[in-house]
From TrEMBL:
One of its GO terms (biological process) is methylation. PANTHER family: PROTEIN ARGININE N-METHYLTRANSFERASE (PTHR11006), PROTEIN ARGININE N-METHYLTRANSFERASE 7 (PTHR11006:SF4). This is Methyltransferase domain-containing protein. It comes from the Eukaryota. It comes from Noctiluca scintillans.
């Protein structure tokens, strides 16, 4: 028996039936997709083999354990649709011992890129010689910007990689448990000479035989299904944010810290990482930030609640000046803004990837290697 988690249009279930599966059980949460996928199954003559259940995988009560699990619970960020959690639950409740899981493993990669197209997209243009660069303070350096929402086809984007792609997160879908996923990752990279405009994210998954599926735009340019991959998954872009040195009093990072323990002026980037960003608070919707008197505000609040508080909201990110909610020593005149970073050939950078608490994305911070760290 084959189990298809997140069966969507039913294409993997139908393919399993075509390849000779005795029985295929598809599980899909979206009612519209359940209705359409059942029509697809019928149109291909597999109603006697394929059954589509309308529920989330954790609600499925199996009458038979599966020999094979196939799943395409992959998003723009590899783990953002819950593939690790779904596979973990399936191993415990839905699969036979030693069942085949497809894909078997996956890795999330990032790469530093130079792109005049991206710079034009994210930089406010000068109008008749008027300098509007201050508007860059409102740019979001905390969130992952999805190419699909930006209207970008990554496989058509003109860009240059300024370092080798580096892994930031890996998972073995036969063994990885969600609690073991890290909250952050540090990577040292060597650069080519150029100007870093953004960090580009892509993933690679593969089966037990090493056959791969990748969202790397470089791998897709010559493939006939490149358009489908751009539309289905796309890529994530992060505007460059340069991390101040450790002795900069305007900056602090707290990992696995309770809100009550966070100093005044700190920022939420999810349950596992809290930051003070050079005079600008970037709110990411999970924990909240703390006022001078230690009172947590905007705790797990919605966009509407933020608007009701009459704070400035741009997209999913809240910006509050440290002049109002400040920690002594923070300089509100020096906010963290996305500024292209010029690098030399063979320069070493440290990239700190701070994962959102639900692993739906990450914030990448770049830091130049200090002289005392060079070898």
């Amino acid at each position: 028996m084959v189990l298809d988690l997140g069966s969507g249009s039913g294409i993997l279930s139908i393919m399993a039936a075509q390849l000779g599966a005795r029985r295929v059980v598809g599980v899909e949460e979206c009612g519209d997709l359940v209705r359409l996928s059942r029509r697809n199954v019928a149109a291909n003559g597999f109603e006697h083999i394929v059954e589509i259940h309308h529920c989330v995988a954790s609600e499925l009560e199996p009458d038979e354990l599966a020999d094979v699990l196939v799943t395409e619970t992959l998003g723009t960020w590899m783990t953002c649709e819950g593939i690790v959690q779904y596979c973990e639950d399936a191993r415990w409740r839905l699969l036979k011992q030693g069942a085949l899981i497809i894909p078997e493993r996956g890795t999330q990669y990032s790469v530093l890129v130079e792109s005049a197209e991206l710079e034009r997209l994210f930089t406010p243009p000068s109008y008749r010689g008027i300098d509007l660069s201050a508007v860059m303070e409102l740019q979001d350096t905390a969130s992952c910007l999805w190419s699909k929402r930006l209207g970008i086809r990554p496989s058509d984007l003109v860009y240059r990689e300024l370092c080798a792609p580096f892994p930031v997160l890996s998972a073995d879908f036969n063994n990885t448990v969600s609690d073991s996923l890290p909250s952050s990752q540090q990577t040292c990279v060597r650069t080519l000479e150029g100007r870093i405009h953004a960090v580009l994210d892509f993933w690679v998954v593969e089966d037990a035989q090493g056959r791969q599926l990748s969202t790397n735009p470089r791998a897709r340019r010559c493939e006939p299904w490149a358009y489908a991959r751009d539309v289905a998954w796309g890529n994530g872009f992060h505007l460059v944010a340069e991390e101040p040195p450790d002795d900069d009093t305007r900056w602090a990072v707290f990992h696995d810290t309770e809100v009550s323990e966070v100093p005044s002026g700190s920022l939420s980037m999810g349950a596992n990482a809290l930051h003070v960003c050079r005079g600008i608070c970037l709110y990411h919707g999970h924990t909240g930030f703390v006022t001078r008197d230690g009172k947590a505000i905007f705790l797990s609040c919605t966009r509407e609640e933020m608007l009701n508080e009459q704070r400035h909201v741009l997209g999913s990110t809240l910006h509050v000046s440290m002049e109002e909610y400040g920690t002594p020593g923070l300089d509100p005149s020096r906010p963290m803004v996305p500024i292209p970073m010029d690098v030399a050939d063979d320069e070493k950078l440290v990239v700190t990837s701070l994962f959102h608490s639900d692993h739906r994305g990450a914030q990448h911070l770049l830091r130049r290697i200090r002289p005392e760290e060079r070898r």
